[in-house]
Design brief:
40% helix, 5 strands, TIM Barrel, disordered N terminus, alpha/beta, 5-stranded parallel β-sheet, single chain, 145 residues, EAL domain-containing protein
């Protein structure tokens, strides 16, 4: 495994990975080093549940298609509710990406999502803007960068 120097406490570092990029030993080493692992596009691939069982993920990010359909498709809402229940049972945070409206956020809160990302909260931040936001708002700000 490649080494690197981190100038911030490792619990503030999160690595997002798509299901097809999972490399078991590297992930275990990262988790052992205190890096939080987040599985991206959860719920759309055939391997989501298997990877959640095999790897020490601390959060899962819902596939954007689920977030986008939460207000218009009751089956999608039930899928999200089931994923959040699974997350709670494994002490895994559920991140809703592509949140663009207050109505979406409200529905996702009711369905049990823990963290929200998208234009409703912020436009994408440059590296410098993210660092400035982090310095100004502390650890909680790491969730938005």
């Amino acid at each position: 495994m490649a080494s690197c120097t981190v100038r911030r406490p490792s619990p503030l570092v999160a690595v997002t990975l798509a299901e097809d990029s999972v490399v078991e030993e590297t992930l275990r080493q990262l988790a052992t080093a205190g890096v939080r692992l987040s599985m991206d596009d959860f719920g759309m691939g055939h391997s989501s549940l298997l990877y959640m069982q095999r790897f020490p993920v601390s959060s899962i990010k819902l596939d954007g298609s689920l977030t986008r359909a939460v207000l218009t498709n009751s089956i999608t809402a039930n899928v999200i509710r089931t994923i959040t229940a699974l997350g709670r049972s494994r002490n895994v945070k559920v991140v809703a990406e592509f949140v663009e409206t207050a109505a979406q956020r409200g529905a996702l809160v009711e369905l049990g999502c823990d963290i929200f990302q998208g234009y409703f909260h912020s436009t994408p931040l440059s590296e410098q803007a993210c660092l400035d936001h982090f310095r100004q708002h502390g650890q909680q700000a790491a969730l938005h960068c």
